[in-house]
Amino acid sequence: MRLRVDDIKGPPILDSDFMFREHKIGSYYSKYGFSKRVKQLKRIIETDLNNIENFVQRWYKMHKRPIVTTWEGHQIEEV
Q: Whole-angstrom distance between the N-terminal and C-terminal Cα of the chain?
């Protein structure tokens, strides 16, 4: 699951997190702009990692049960 992308309900253009909080540095024109973008990216990644349980819970809510397979691709039935 890609964070903040796979669980969007409705058009993504209406979701502010999808539009403006990407895991990218973005454009910059100076060393100060670069350092500012790096700090923003660091803050975004830290908040996402602190809330990783929330992403996992939403993934399980969407997909119910993940399919567990062996290395050969055979499905393992869980009890």
A: 25
Computed on alpha carbons and rounded to an integer, the radius of gyration of the chain in Å comes to 18
Instruction: Please check whether residue 37 is in contact with residue 25, taking contact to mean a CB–CB distance below 8 angstroms.
Output: yes
DSSP 75: B
* pTM of the complete model beyond 0.70: no
In sequence order, the β-bridge partners of residue 75 are: 69
Q: Do residues 36 and 28 touch, judged by C-beta distance below 8 A?
A: yes
| Spatial CB neighbours of 41, under 8 Å, sequence gap ≥ 6 | 23, 24, 25
What pLDDT, in 10s, does the model give residues 23-42? 778 889 999 999 999 999 89
Are the C-beta atoms of residues 16 and 29 closer than 8 Å to each other? no
